[in-house]
Design a protein that fits this description.
This protein is α+β, with helices and mostly antiparallel strands. The protein folds into 2 domains: about 170 residues, Helix Hairpins (Orthogonal Bundle); about 80 residues, no CATH class. It is about 75% helix and about 5% strand. The chain is built from 6 helices and 4 strands; from the N terminus they run αααβββαβαα. Strands 3-2-1-4 form a 4-stranded mixed sheet. A hairpin with a 4-residue loop joins strand 1 and strand 2. Helix 1 runs antiparallel to helix 2. The chain is rod-shaped, with a radius of gyration of 40 Å. Zinc ion binds next to loops.
Length: about 250
């Protein structure tokens, strides 16, 4: 088998392999993207939970303050009735007034913090619903990936072995060139030559449609062991058997 024939064989297996692998990769990417989004949501939920804990701590501290404020008020009221002189009386009244103002301030603050807590808790619920939905998408993506692995896994391994076999007889330099071209063309390393007009000797690369000089076509008919790449798209060119036989130069036909 000539080098070009070997490459065409490799190309057929390689493009099947890449197409199947592409299906698996697509499923993997979907899952990764869903998992990434879920992780973002979880991180946000954690942050909200920690804000929630802080708010509860603040509210608790404020409640403790109100309670001790109230206890002090009770005590002062008792002392008020028993106050010995006017100076003591006035001083208690002053402190009571101060405590009352403080209670109002703390009550307002508590109310504000409780509103914040309530809003935050609504957002947490919202967030949990979003995370649950995202988790469902994740599960679906996981199932799809597993199904796809089952579908194509065995065939993919067969093709991998077949590809290695097809590649084994090709010299390293040419194989590397093939691989690099396949990588850069999404698995379309090779392109057949299209005949546009035999009379006008017009031929083109079937992948990118650029016209190619007739001399290049002739070279392909006579030399089956050298790689010729399309000067526009870089794909490795080959002639389908029927076309090659029909345009082969006269001496080859004898
Ligand atoms: Zn081309």
């Amino acid at each position: 088998m000539s080098l070009i024939q070997q490459l065409v064989t490799l190309h057929r297996v390689d493009s099947q392999f890449r197409a199947l692998e592409g299906r698996l990769d697509a499923a993997r990417e979907t899952l990764t993207s869903q998992e990434r989004q879920l992780a973002v949501l979880s991180k946000q939920t954690d942050d909200m939970r920690s804000q929630e804990r802080q708010l509860k701590t603040t509210i608790h501290a404020l409640e403790v303050e109100v309670a001790s404020n109230g206890a002090r008020v009770e005590k002062l009221r008792g002392e008020l009735n028993a106050s010995a002189n006017e100076k003591a009386y006035k001083s208690i009244i002053l402190e009571l007034k101060h405590l009352e103002e403080n209670k109002k301030k703390v009550d307002d603050q508590t109310l504000g913090e409780m509103q914040r807590l309530e809003e935050l808790q609504k957002r947490v619920l919202d967030q949990l619903a979003k995370a649950a939905e995202r988790q469902r998408f994740c599960d679906i993506a996981k199932t799809e990936l597993e199904e796809r692995k089952q579908e194509v896994g065995a065939r993919l391994e067969e093709l991998r072995a077949e590809r290695a076999r097809a590649a084994s007889s090709i010299p390293e330099r040419e194989r590397k060139l093939f691989d690099a071209t396949a990588d850069s063309t999404d698995g379309e390393a090779m392109a057949a030559v299209s005949e546009i007009s035999r009379r006008h000797r017009e031929y083109s690369c079937s992948a990118c449609n650029i016209e190619m000089p007739f001399e290049a076509v002739l070279r392909l008919t006579s030399d089956q062991n050298t790689i010729f790449q399309c000067r526009a798209c870089g794909r490795i060119l080959f002639l389908e058997d029927a076309l090659r036989d029909s345009i082969a130069p006269a001496p080859a036909k004898k």
